[in-house]
Amino acid sequence: MRSIRRNGHLLFLTICLSLVYTVTLAPDITWANRGDDGGDLIVAAATKGIPHPSGYPTYILLAQLIQSLPIGTLAFRTNLLSTLCAVLSALVVADIVRCFYGGNIRIGKTAGTIAGLSLGLAPLFWSQAVITEVYTLNALFVALILHILLNGIAHKLTHTWVDRLSGLLFGVALGTQATVAFLLPPLLLSGISKKEKEQGSMGAKSSRAALFPSSLAAFFSSKRSVRKFIWILLGLQVYLIIPIRARSGSPVIWGDPVDWKGFWWLVSGQYYHWRVFSLPLSHLWTRIQDWVGMLVDQFSIFGMLLVLWALLFYWKHTHFRKLHWITVWIILTYVIFAVGYNTHDAYVLLIPVIVILSIWMGLGSAALLEALVRWQNKATWILPAGVILLVFPVLINAWRFFLLVDASQDIRATTFGQAVMQTAPQNAIIYTLDDADSFTLWYYHFALGGRPDIAVLQKRLLPEVWYRERMREIYPELIIPEESGQTWYLTVMAANPKLQNCEITLDKPEVVACRSKGN
């Protein structure tokens, strides 16, 4: 009973977000909320394979674990992983605010709850919490790392377990998404003592020295930083499952990570390197304008004003100074990388920015509630009114975007996959083009075992040597030539004239256009 009273705000937050996510959770494989990659992740986890770069070993291990639950469809169970990570992320953010605020306990808990709700109901974060994707797990690791960093700053923790845990978490987090690497400088440099900073940066005593190159000398002389680095390497051992899975025989193994060259190709994301900072300059200003509006939409205008006020209000507080610099670092690194990343859905890379801003929203709420407490003796209603004032915009904003993020009614992927499985000719080769159609058919064909008589080939992957080798192993009856003098899928068609070679479109899956001998 005492534990419930102490953590009642976290229980309340868990119930609220769980209900919202349950109502909007996708019941099966889905294309909602840019969830095209979901099929690839689901199949890789279910067949002990390796999904698209960077391989996501941490995510795949957790997805495989949750897929063993005896509820719903395979895709539904994997969707639940995103929901679970989203709820936990909100709880960690709530506890960050409570701990780092350090004032009145009741105000800290209330402000933490508001911060957790703000994160959990932010449209972009919410949209990823109800589909299969890696982003809420990544947000959870970001929140956990921030919790350890900020706890160490607030309470001046120097215990070795803090360094070990933060390093281990960071290493394991890299197995979820490589952009976690942006947190490496604050993670390593935040543990440097004042004495070490003064010795390593020629007397620079500013708190910002812990995050800038002037402290690099201090970093190399810091036992805490070295200890963190060692534990980071231990966390990175999660990547060892990649060469193990590369020999599993799964139909979904990207690349050929059985040696160092193939391993590095996968984990470094070389397949997508051409997208990094390749956004045409003519699109840059439009993207920036759109994303500024998108960030405002996450918390509403009132919420963003509260965040900005909190940043200014706490600027003079030494206790919060390092949090300011960590915030600046996270915003700059993630925004610069995401803005230059040339994909239509690069904005999802900004979710760590939403995490740090939700912390500031909680701290701003705490400062406002603290001011209202002084007036409570004159008007007992003023503090509850303040809480309502802070929560109401969050709820209104959630209502505005409910239909946009709701994945519970999206049946496009299931309709497409089932239609193709039903209408495809016997012993046909089905050629797919995009992520949406390819990964959906992988789900039905490889993970669920549908239509074992057909073969599913991805046009865009056929030029890759590793993909053709994998398809020869999976479909030994197909003739896949070693060389091509034309477009690869046309080469495969010509090499298999006795089979039905079929193409499909996303909008009309029931219409399967096929070519065979004599056509």
Provide a descriptive summary of the structure in words:
With 519 residues, the protein is mainly alpha-helical. It has 2 domains: 2-268 and 277-405, no CATH class; 412-515, no CATH class. The chain is built from 23 helices and 4 strands. The protein has helices at residues 2-6, 8-24, 38-46, 57-66, 74-101, 105-120, 123-129, 135-155, 160-173, 184-189, 194-200, 216-220, 223-235, 241-245, 260-267, 281-313, 318-340, 351-373, 382-405, 412-423, 435-447, 465-474, 488-495; strands at residues 429-432, 455-458, 501-503, 513-515. Strands 2-1-3-4 form a 4-stranded mixed β-sheet, with helices on one face. Helix 21 (435-447) links the parallel strand 1 (429-432) and strand 2 (455-458). Helix 3 (38-46) packs across helix 4 (57-66) and helix 20 (412-423) packs across helix 21. The model is unreliable at 196-221 (pLDDT under 50).
Gist?
With 519 residues, the chain is mainly alpha-helical. 61% of the residues lie in helices and 3% in strands.
Q: β content, as a range?
A: under 5%
Main sheet characteristics: 4 strands, mixed
- Output mean pLDDT: 88
Helix proportion: 55-70%
Number of contiguous helices: 23
Structural class designation: mainly alpha
How many domain units?
2
Distance between the termini: 75 Å
Q: Which H/E pattern describes the elements?
A: HHHHHHHHHHHHHHHHHHHHEHEHHEE
Number of DSSP strand runs: 4
Rg calculated over all Cα atoms: 25 Å
